[in-house]
Amino acid sequence: MAHCSLANRNSSLRISTCWLKWLVLLGLLTFSSSLYAALPLLTPPSQPSAPIELTPYVELLEDASQQLNLQQVIQAEYDQQFKPAGEETPYIGHTHSAWWVRFQLYANEAQDWFLLLDQPIGGSIQMFSLPYPTKSTLTPLENYRLPAYRLLLAPQETITIYVRVTNAGALLSLPLKLMSAEQLITTSNQQAVIFAALFAGMTVLGIYNLLLFFSVREYAYLRLVSFIVFVNLTFIRDSNLFPSLAWINNTDNYFYAAPLLLVLVSAFYYWMYVNEGVSVIMDKLSRVVIYLALGLLPFIGLIENAEAFIFSCVLGLMPCVVILISVTAIRGHRPTQHAYAAAMILIIGLIPYALMQAGWGLTYNRN
Q: Quick one: how many helices (H) and strands (E) in the chain?
């Protein structure tokens, strides 16, 4: 009886140990699945009808020190610090941090894709592909306005893409898209036509006013030409319309924010002619802005977030300018009345852009 009782206990012990092993294994599998669930896996279709927005599939990590490398961010210590980007394109705003982005792709069959950051970057951007245990650094397309990289996916392959972006304090957003070669060409051509048309329109307007200056020798036209030139220079910088002039778009450039100051100077310099000294306050305000902006120009590279500072000043000046020129127009000053509509359209159109550049808009929640 004792021998039978001992056998029963041993049998029960073996059953309990077996169940314990299965429970541990199930727990490990559940834990492993939860880790993978944190990083959604995108399986691109063979023939997409439109570019794929990657925002719902990406995770972000802020590196305020700018010292982390790829080998560090893939370690467990930093791996768990990546946060989902959410459903909307991450708008980081003005930042001196390096930002890491990661997402996973799985291909059912061999596919040829292009990864596009649909935003000009004046800082640096690096992309890495990690089909473990090897890694490769992706090479950007040459002479392309936007950062674009080719991705060749093998059948039944899962890869993790890591992206490192810095923008030296300038505005940063991360609209990442996955698209075919045909979609990339279409997108590129559409944007090129729009930006080229805007640039050409401003250039023609500048040439027209320059010819008027040579014809009638009226310096007001030359003042307007200077304003158009500096607006175009800022437009080239922000849009990277001409990749061969990428140095203008380099956010590490000491004089990166200088075109904005020159736009401000030329705008007030032109309006001094329109005002003709009728509004004494407007005339004095214009002179103060011009002198301060020109005095600040040699030191612009020393100001942290110089763009945000300039646009904050512009937003502060806007109510004063609107009131002053409105009062002058109401009092019957003909030159101000003739230029009033154009000035109001320019100011109203500038407000959203200035709010964004000043950093007063919505930014990515770092928490």
A: 9, 13
pLDDT-derived band at 137, boundaries 50, 70, 90: confident
pLDDT, one tens digit per residue, over 256-276 is: 999 999 999 999 999 999 999
pTM for this entry:
0.81
Q: What is the dihedral of CA 297, 300, 303, 306, to 10 degrees?
A: 100
Peptide bond into 90 cis (omega under 30): no
Residue 244: its pLDDT value, please? 84
The beta strands (E) that lie in the chain are given as 41-42, 52-53, 59-63, 83-84, 91-94, 98-107, 111-117, 124-130, 136-137, 148-153, 157-166, 171-173, 176-179
> What are 180-194's pLDDT values in tens digits?
999 999 998 999 899
Q: 129: closest CA among 159, 166, 108?
A: 159
DSSP 8-state symbol, 218: -
**pLDDT value of residue 90:** 83
* Residue whose C-alpha is closest to residue 126's, from 160, 157, 161, 84: 161
The 10 Å Cβ neighbour count of residue 363 is: 16
Q: What CA–CA distances, in Å, run from 270 to 10, 147, 223, 339? A: 98, 37, 5, 11
Helix (H) or strand (E) holding 311: helix 306-330
| Measured distance CA(227)–CA(317) in Å, rounded | 18
Q: Which residues contact 74 (CB under 8 A, 6 or more apart)?
A: 130, 162
**What pLDDT sits at residue 183?**
92
Q: Are the C-beta atoms of residues 242 and 235 closer than 8 Å to each other?
A: no
Query: Mind listing the pLDDT tens digit for each residue in 209-242?
Result: 999 999 988 888 999 999 999 999 999 999 988 8
